């Protein structure tokens, strides 16, 4: 039985009483060790959802449960220890004068012994491919490098859940792949739930489950494969499907019997290969 | 406006322990009216390069010429104001630079600083707000009440209001949703042609480089690694992979189809529908 780690029960949120409702009666859950991608166009409420997950915002109505705890002022610090967050703009999340110090900052706050700290810093910097930059000044790094350090800082604290709020938006394609690879690797090493808020459809294909937000509501919930079968519907709310799905749709329309919704090139090739060799 | 880099090197903090060579012996020419994409891995020198285009940085060695203004290493830069009037830069996340009370004041700020007459500014504000796809009804509103995508459009309008002849775009679509990204790029593409601009577009998106640019410069470790027309550059998959870059996905997919099924599909900017039709035809033909 899958164990729920995070749960929203009928959560509604608006920034001010006279401003529009950002989330409208949203109920979702994220299981332990599950990777959930949240997508939706700008203003659909997805970043607000992320901020409600670790108590940066609290709901106007409804309940947020993290690891069985109802989010409240009393346990907010405990919850933030469990839920690490990486934001879109890395410049807003640096405090240390060197990369090493910066990763150490979070660990110091959590009272991790020095010996363990040294180990964790090295390990998490290696995980994001920044081990050679230990002694560099964070503000001298490029945007992509900064973001990798920010991710390392969160990983070092060993949270039960990591939220990446458009954390790869500023990285180049190789950098994005590295981060996704990193997330996969961390998940293999230990139990961690991952929530990625993203516009990158290729990131979505890596997740176990996708939640699509539209106008403050959950518009779709299911696997990436199920999602990308809904080509026209997705486009009607300003989103799109990956190129490989489009290509498969076209081939299907042209009479090639592509049955499974492919998530990557290899899946499409394999499917076409089977068709190719049986006809 | 022609842009020429002649043997340009740029060194951050020279003669210090932090010395860092960001550009090395960079030479290229961008003819007036081109739409050039500058691509390269994070840290390859792209941002340093574009900061030379409006004199935010001056070369440590060599010279940069934009129109009739030359920045020569070692000599005090002259005519910087004239240069900045002609070269509009849209930085990453330009909406972070909004500061005025109303949208109109924010868009007017640049031209006001360059001494443009009030009447002329009013007219430019009207023109640019429409050019970026917003309504002039919004001019009296605060820019901070807008959505992120709208704020970015206002910031871009502020750059356009200076009537630049060269437009430098540093990842102008970062953080927008796919629809917003396409809208902003289509808008720049349209302006580029309508106003006969020279556009330099720094991007991580190989798809955008393929779709909009007529010339591509590939940077690596401060050097010019490759240059050419997009379809030529993106033929060199192995060379690009070596410096941490990919080819556009549609080209990658075409290559894979060819290899796996022994086809001879050629990607020459046809639509995905057309490409699929060619592929289907060849696949069906091959299996008989």
TrEMBL record, chain A:
It is found in: Cell membrane. Keywords: ATP-binding, Cell membrane, Membrane, Nucleotide-binding, Translocase, Transport. Residues 6-240 form the ABC transporter domain. InterPro entries: AAA+_ATPase (IPR003593), ABC_transporter-like_ATP-bd (IPR003439), ABC_transporter-like_CS (IPR017871), ABC_transpr_CbiO/EcfA_su (IPR015856), ECF_ABC_transporter_ATP-bd (IPR050095), EcfA_1 (IPR030947), P-loop_NTPase (IPR027417). It holds the Pfam family ABC_tran. CDD domains: ABC_cobalt_CbiO_domain1. One of its GO terms (molecular function) is ATPase-coupled transmembrane transporter activity. Its main location: membrane. The keyword Isomerase does not apply. GO terms for cellular component: ATP-binding cassette (ABC) transporter complex. The keyword Transport applies. Transmembrane segments: none annotated. It comes from the Bacteria. PROSITE patterns: ABC_TRANSPORTER_1 (PS00211), ABC_TRANSPORTER_2 (PS50893). It is a peripheral membrane protein. Belongs to the ABC transporter superfamily. This is Cobalt transporter ATP-binding subunit. It comes from Pontibacillus chungwhensis BH030062. The gene is cbiO.
From TrEMBL, chain B:
GO terms for cellular component: ATP-binding cassette (ABC) transporter complex. Transmembrane segments: none annotated. GO terms for molecular function: ATP binding; ATP hydrolysis activity; ATPase-coupled transmembrane transporter activity; cobalt ion transmembrane transporter activity. Its main location: membrane. It comes from the Bacteria. InterPro entries: AAA+_ATPase, ABC_transporter-like_ATP-bd, ABC_transporter-like_CS, ABC_transpr_CbiO/EcfA_su, ECF_ABC_transporter_ATP-bd, EcfA2, P-loop_NTPase. Belongs to the ABC transporter superfamily. Energy-coupling factor EcfA family. ATP-binding (A) component of a common energy-coupling factor (ECF) ABC-transporter complex. This is Energy-coupling factor transporter ATP-binding protein EcfA2. The lineage of its organism: Bacteria, Bacillati, Bacillota, Bacilli, Bacillales. The gene is cbiO.
